[in-house]
């Protein structure tokens, strides 16, 4: 029986899309920092899509690279075979990554990258003769995608509760969003070291010899943009080193310039053992994700007493030629236009802009770092999230795309944004928040 209309045939009854079905908002065209609706209404992209179109939309250089690759070779198997572009890309990534993060595994999304990283971490511990290290530690208000691994270590209870037993042996660090002490602080808030010391408490509960890895977003994104408090990441690194626990940074959002540095690892001077990326890796043209690992992880896997040589992992589309071609063209743009540096330079203007909204429509906190920000406001009585949704809708009506996270609006414009466009984003955001107060 045919569905009643096109939208009925579109099966997405999940919270990410349920409201869309009731009230579809369509995007039909994109260029630079703008989208256009099918009716031709222009909307400024305050979120770089989903924190991913860092170099702006419709980049001709990326298109040309994808088309050229399509003409040369559309696909190559990633099992027992390869193609030169994937090696070239890995070498380019290794050259720009901090420390000795110099081996790359490519996949197709952030969720795949996270699941891959967790598997690599567990396999590494076993390969080096530490097979009892099976426990994983995530963080409350962490978001690591929607794979089973990602929701297990992720810190969003709603994302877990439907799925019964997930990965066993997972603990969560407390989140770092301390409103009482840090509301409206600019950049990194205070009290990082004592918050990171919570990791010692968890290690004390289970004994380090049972713990494989800790995974955190250096700066939590999807749960409202929570910059790490000062000293937090460094202290996590110290505690992990002390106990032989691996540290994984999920840089799906923070990677490729968002914080005004190539990666958060570089910005904070903390090199994780594994790093996950996606989004900005391909400027969201062809789907792509990746895991970067340090030399000791690679060597431990290959040469440990219980070598993981029989470990099977990989996707049909790992290191897809189109994705590699796109990712390489994106790196050219980032380099030639100095976009990471540009983000760093613009971030003070951005900070002043978002903080100018203090005092508007019941705003309770404003957070920023690099070219991203989160703005919290008072919830409606008995309806958490309702005002956030209405604010997002209002902003869209007024010509701005923002991201809703509960009663919070998150923003992360493309890194090619101009100052007058930042002004426009701030202006519309203020109006939308006022309108829903
Ligand atoms: N990790 C982080 C930190 C993310 O922000 C996201 C996506 N927002 C993911 C993982 C999942 O990525 P994807 O949606 O590409 O699976």
Automatic annotation (TrEMBL):
Keywords from the UniProt entry: Aminotransferase, Pyridoxal phosphate, Pyruvate, Transferase
Cofactors (names): pyridoxal 5'-phosphate
PROSITE patterns according to UniProt: AA_TRANSFER_CLASS_3
InterPro entries per record: Aminotrans_3 (IPR005814), Aminotrans_3_PPA_site (IPR049704), PyrdxlP-dep_Trfase (IPR015424), PyrdxlP-dep_Trfase_major (IPR015421), PyrdxlP-dep_Trfase_small (IPR015422)
GO MF terms held by the record: pyridoxal phosphate binding; transaminase activity
Protein name: Beta-alanine--pyruvate transaminase
Cross-referenced Gene3D superfamilies: Aspartate Aminotransferase, domain 1 (3.90.1150.10), Type I PLP-dependent aspartate aminotransferase-like (Major domain) (3.40.640.10)
PANTHER family reported in the protein's UniProt record: AMINOTRANSFERASE, AMINOTRANSFERASE CLASS-III
Family: Belongs to the class-III pyridoxal-phosphate-dependent aminotransferase family.
A Pfam family that the UniProt record links to this protein: Aminotran_3
Lineage, highest ranks first: Bacteria, Pseudomonadati, Pseudomonadota, Alphaproteobacteria, Hyphomicrobiales
